Amino acid sequence: MLEGKAIIGETDMLQTVQQDALDLAAKALDFYDVTEPTEIARFIKKEFDRDYGGGWQCIVGTDFGSFVTHCYGSFIHFCIGSLAILLFRGSTGQDSNPNLFSTMETLEA
């Protein structure tokens, strides 16, 4: 495991869910080496899918950028040492206007 305290960059999760994310990351780092970011991400994602329902995405690495759409209350970005972890539940954005395409077709007619 990487030594050091997790530093949360951004989050909109409840405190208890944040703590679950941090605990799972620590557990993943007990099982996998820091050179296996895909395995770490898979572990965290599968555990969150099991505990909180499907649709979670996890990105782990030392150098990455992102621009994501997520469900409210389901985003966290934190670092443990040099390893950054981004965990979020994806959103399709369709909730805001489920009839977007039918509206567009009506306008074109």
Automatic annotation (TrEMBL):
Q: Name one GO cellular component term.
A: cytoplasmic dynein complex
Single GO MF descriptor: dynein intermediate chain binding
Keyword presence, Signal:
no
- Name a single GO biological process: microtubule-based process
The UniProt entry's coiled-coil ranges are none
- Tell me the SUPFAM superfamilies matching this sequence: DLC
Principal place of residence: cytoplasm
InterPro entries cross-referenced by the UniProt entry: DLC_sf (IPR037177), Dynein_light_chain_typ-1/2 (IPR001372)
Q: Which Pfam families match?
A: Dynein_light (PF01221)
Q: Where in the cell is it found?
A: Cytoplasm, Cytoskeleton
**Keyword list, A-Z:** Cytoplasm, Cytoskeleton, Dynein, Microtubule, Motor protein
Family listed: Belongs to the dynein light chain family.
Name listed for the protein in its UniProt record: Dynein light chain
Lineage in the entry? Answer: Eukaryota, Viridiplantae, Streptophyta, Embryophyta, Tracheophyta
